[in-house]
């Protein structure tokens, strides 16, 4: 069709000729560190929530907000065991979902009094608050950027399906 002719070929014929012989580069898995600048072969979703468990966002005492419902200086809640002290980034013990100031706990005769309430997530980072499970992190065909690599690493993803010619491929046809 195209060989040996000196005449111009209509655009549609040339396009069809090229597309009939073009095939997508096969997807291959590479380590996350080697994926920057490459095109993703498929959609990437968070397999688990990030963070996977509640974390302290400030220094204080880890508490369960449910246990403190209705607590006030005039109607304190008494606990038989001292709540756990936490630092920013610490995992909260079960069933804690909030962090209050250490001064909010008064201890006397083996009882620990808390005279304030707390709401879920107060002073804490709850599971999935950064990235819920099933959230799309990157679309198929997207170019892997440093910011995307950070999000993927925080989601526990270590390899990515990409579409990129292998490094030893000579694309000039020689």
Describe what you observe in this structure:
The chain has 174 residues and is α+β, with helices and mostly antiparallel strands. It is built from 2 helices and 13 strands; from the N terminus they run H-E-E-E-E-E-E-E-E-E-E-E-E-H-E. It has a 3-stranded antiparallel sheet with strand order 1-13-2, with no helix packed on it. A 3-stranded antiparallel sheet has the order 7-5-8, with no helix packed on it. Strands 6-10-9 form a 3-stranded antiparallel sheet, with no helix packed on it. The longest helix is centred in the N-terminal third of the chain and has 11 residues, at 11-21. It starts with 10 loop residues before the first helix and ends in an 11-residue tail after the last strand. The relative contact order is 0.25.
- Bulk shape: rod-shaped
Widest β-sheet, arrangement of strands: 1-13-2
Count the E strands.
Answer: 13
Reading the helices and strands in chain order gives HEEEEEEEEEEEEHE
In round numbers, the mean pLDDT is: 89
**Share of helix among residues?**
10-25%
Secondary structure layout:
Blueprint: H1 11-21, E1 28-31, E2 39-40, E3 44-45, E4 55-56, E5 60-63, E6 77-79, E7 85-86, E8 98-100, E9 105-108, E10 111-114, E11 124-125, E12 136-138, H2 146-154, E13 159-163
Antiparallel strand pairs: 1-13, 2-13, 3-12, 4-11, 5-7, 5-8, 6-10, 9-10
Short précis:
The chain is an alpha+beta fold. The chain has helices at 11-21, 146-154, and strands at residues 28-31, 39-40, 44-45, 55-56, 60-63, 77-79, 85-86, 98-100, 105-108, 111-114, 124-125, 136-138, 159-163. It contains two helices and 13 strands; from the N terminus they run αββββββββββββαβ.
């Amino acid at each position: 069709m195209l060989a040996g002719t000196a005449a111009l070929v209509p655009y549609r014929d040339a396009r069809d000729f090229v597309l009939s012989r073009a095939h997508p580069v096969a997807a291959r898995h590479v380590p996350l560190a080697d994926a920057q600048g490459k095109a993703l072969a498929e959609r990437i979703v968070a397999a688990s929530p990030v963070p996977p468990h509640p974390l302290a966002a400030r220094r204080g005492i880890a508490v369960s907000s449910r246990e403190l419902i209705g607590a006030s200086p005039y109607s304190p809640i008494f606990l038989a065991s001292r709540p756990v002290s936490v630092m920013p980034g610490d995992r909260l013990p079960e069933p804690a979902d909030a962090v209050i100031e250490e001064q909010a706990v008064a201890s006397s005769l083996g009882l620990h009094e808390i005279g304030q309430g707390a709401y879920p997530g107060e002073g804490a980072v709850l599971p999935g608050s950064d990235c819920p499970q099933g959230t799309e992190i990157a679309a198929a065909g997207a170019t892997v950027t440093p910011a995307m690599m950070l999000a993927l690493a925080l989601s526990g993803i270590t390899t990515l399906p990409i579409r990129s010619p292998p490094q030893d491929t000579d694309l000039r046809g020689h």
